[in-house]
């Protein structure tokens, strides 16, 4: 069985190692891939194994953080200035 640390150093992870890297189950990655969600993946080699680039996983994680209002103050509705009501008759 290949050492996952070698795969991480090489920059490519299979589904099992990518799931462990993200802290989720391999099944979740399969579902995301089927729904065209989640981090980008590709098929590699003669058997067409699904693989993930570690750099793509890191970029995807960063994208998720930026899109989440809890970790991005610019998206937090509580950070926005209160809106003024318009007077439709004026």
Task: Provide a compact summary of the structure.
This protein has 90 residues and is α+β, with helices and mostly antiparallel strands. The chain is 42% helix and 12% strand. The protein has a three-stranded antiparallel sheet.
Q: How many beta-strand segments?
A: 3
Strand content: 5-15%
Q: What is the structural class?
A: alpha+beta
Low-confidence stretches: none
Helix content: 40-55%
Q: Kindly report the spatial arrangement of strands forming the biggest sheet.
A: 1-3-2
Question: What is the overall silhouette?
Answer: elongated
Gyration radius (Cα, Å) is 20 Å
The overall pLDDT average reads 83
Biggest beta sheet summary: 3 strands, antiparallel
Tally the helices: what do you get?
A: 4
The N- and C-terminal alpha carbons lie at a distance of: 75 Å
- From N to C, what is the helix and strand string? HEHHEEH
Description:
The longest helix has 14 residues, at 54-67. This protein has helices spanning 4-10, 15-22, 26-34, 54-67; strands at residues 12-14, 42-44, 49-53. It has a three-stranded antiparallel beta sheet with strand order 1-3-2. α2 packs across α3. It has 90 residues and is of the alpha+beta class. Residues 12-64 form the Helix-turn-helix domain. It holds the Pfam family HTH_17. This is Helix-turn-helix domain-containing protein. It comes from Streptomyces cavourensis.
